[in-house]
Design brief:
By secondary structure, the chain is of the alpha+beta class. It has 15 helices and 24 strands.
């Protein structure tokens, strides 16, 4: 082959590569633009429903701050006879009768309401047990005003502190009209009026002087609007949420590579809106105990899901000098991730659910990219060290070398793994490590150890790629459905790994191209991405993962699709 022929073939190849690179970028932009089109910064007022079976009565939240003694009455229906556990929190002294028997009394209670420390787990001030026969009984609660207000929370709990759904609170036997709220209330009363309540049951309830019972409803509070007609309706793209954090962070990456200022502006608008509304939404959450008010995760902030992952676009913009007033919320997120998050004895980040001291593979992504950027923000290497250490610690508990895969979870109390190698759990790890290797200096003492984990994981994943280029919901179970988000996460990690020389080009380029072909088949002309698994806890069976739903344009995978397309662009552009 002569020089001219070689030159022509080279330019043909170069032109094809540049066209392909442009195609990747255009795909990423279409996906990101759909997020912008489907986003809304509007709010609406909604009835705030109780969460996780919490029975919440805030007397002062309903009708002012008049002092005295208040009563609340409901009925409990038990599915079976058993000894039941209850969590209890109150703003003042409290007594509880069940079936006219005093079952709990605390004259010094002044805890306020419980703290939600995980998705279905609440930290109550106290607990008690009560023996219930199958069927229906009455429950009466007496509370006294304190400097903290007047109200209580009551929650039936199982042995792990989660909701015991064998109990149901309602007032069906009273046949009340106009309300579905399971309590009626009365009060306030002066202390002197209640001398008869020292009996086993407040007989004063039958006296003519007793005030009429009031039916009440749930309080109204603001939530973020989801526009009509959008494909993803389960929460707003403008919520403080880990999946939105990953998506908007990816859009900033795309803004840099594509040179599109409008993408960065959208992320800036999101961050400014969140900070502008913080005090308003917090007042509803904290003062009126509205657990699902707009951006409630920002105020709960008891998990990495709530803290460091949603803060990724904030810290990224802060490092660019765009939103200096975000420092306070970034510092709160950093305190949760670096100091307050639950840990195993060896320092591994953990969660209190589904069992206390459970390690989640997801948390490698939820923590590490943020910690590495916090190191840059604070000019303090301890946060970089912590991020790289967490990669190795989570590997210690979840990675299995015979398959080169991560289990979804580790239960420290059992000293055992969860059952499945869930696709997206492995994807979160792949993305986190690919980010860490790109940001950390190669001279760091842990760099080569992290690189070794990355290489092994990529090799293990390559052997499990499906015929269509996609990976499966349960990676080593090809009968499980093909899942988009994990495919995008593996693709972005592999493409970046080849581009930066971490893994072998000849081995991985066919895997990468096949993965892109499979991923692109899930992206529609308007940018909508299909086949993304919904949010998923740690399951106890393979069927749990098989039966998870796929939701269109779910931000739990959209950010990874954007980043995968960017990495394909950079790989071919170079």
């Amino acid at each position: 082959m002569n020089f001219i022929t070689k030159s022509i073939l080279y330019f043909i190849f170069l032109n094809a590569s540049l066209m392909a690179a442009t195609d990747y970028l255009e795909t990423a932009i279409r996906v990101a633009d759909k997020i912008i089109r489907d986003s809304s910064f509007d709010t609406k007022i909604k009835e705030m429903q109780p969460v996780n079976g919490l029975q919440v009565i805030d007397f002062h939240g309903y009708w002012g701050s008049e002092s005295g003694i208040y009563y609340a009455v409901s009925e409990i229906e038990a599915e079976e006879s058993d000894i039941y556990d209850f969590g209890i929190s109150a703003k003042g002294p409290i007594r509880i009768w069940v079936d006219k028997q005093l079952v709990y009394e605390n004259e010094s209670m002044n805890s306020g309401f419980s703290r939600e420390i995980a998705y279905e787990l609440h930290q109550h001030a106290d607990s008690f047990q009560c023996s219930l026969d199958k069927g229906r009984v009455s429950v009466w609660v007496e509370t006294v005003t304190s400097e903290n207000g007047c109200g209580f929370e009551l929650q039936p709990q199982d042995s792990h502190g989660m909701l015991d759904d064998r109990l149901n609170f309602d007032l069906n036997s009273l046949d009340l009209e106009g309300t579905s709220f399971p309590w009626v209330v009365s009060g306030p009363y002066a202390h002197a009026q209640l001398s008869t309540t020292d009996a086993v049951f407040p007989e004063i309830m039958t006296e003519e002087s007793f005030r009429p019972w009031r039916t009440i409803g749930n309080l109204l509070g603001p939530v973020l609007s989801v526009p009509e007609g959008v494909d993803f309706r389960w929460h707003a793209y403008t919520e403080w949420h880990y999946s939105n954090g990953a998506t908007l962070w990816s859009m900033l990456y795309l803004a840099d590579v594509a040179g599109l200022e409008r993408l960065q502006k959208h992320v800036e608008d999101f961050c400014k809106f969140t900070l502008l509304k913080e005090d308003l939404f917090r007042a509803y959450h904290d003062q009126y105990n509205m657990r699902r008010v707009a951006n409630f995760r920002m105020f709960r902030m008891s998990m990495l899901d709530d803290s460091s992952a949603p803060a990724l676009p904030f810290i990224e913009l802060y490092l660019r000098g765009k939103i200096p007033h975000a420092k306070e919320v970034i510092d709160r997120a950093l305190r949760q991730a670096a100091v307050e998050q639950v840990r195993l004895e060896d320092g591994t980040l953990a969660r209190p659910e589904p069992e206390y001291l459970s390690v989640w593979a997801d948390d490698m992504f939820m923590a590490v990219p943020f910690l590495i950027r916090a190191s840059e923000m604070k000019q303090d290497s301890q946060f970089l060290d912590l991020g790289l250490e967490q990669i190795l610690l989570i590997n210690r508990h979840l990675y299995v070398t015979d398959k080169d895969l991560y289990f979804h979870g580790w239960f420290d109390s059992r000293q055992s793994h969860s059952i499945a190698h869930w696709g997206r759990a492995n994807g979160w790890c792949a993305w986190a490590i690919a980010d860490a290797l790109m940001k950390a200096p190669q001279s760091h003492p842990l760099y080569l150890k992290v690189l070794d984990k990355f290489s092994s994981h990529m090799n293990g994943l390559a052997t499990l790629q499906g015929n269509n280029g996609l990976w499966h919901q349960v990676l080593d179970h090809p009968d499980s459905w093909e899942e988009t988000s994990c495919t995008a996460m593996f693709l972005l990690a592999m493409a970046r790994g080849v581009r930066l020389g971490w893994i072998d080009r000849e081995t991985f380029m066919p895997v990468i191209q096949k993965a892109w072909d499979g991923l692109k088949s899930k992206i529609e002309a308007d940018g909508k991405v299909a086949g993304i698994c919904q949010g998923t806890g740690i399951g106890e069976s393979y069927e749990f993962y098989y039966e998870r739903k796929a939701r269109p344009h779910d931000p739990r995978g959209v950010g990874a699709v954007i980043t995968a397309a960017i990495e394909m662009h950079l790989l071919h552009a170079n």
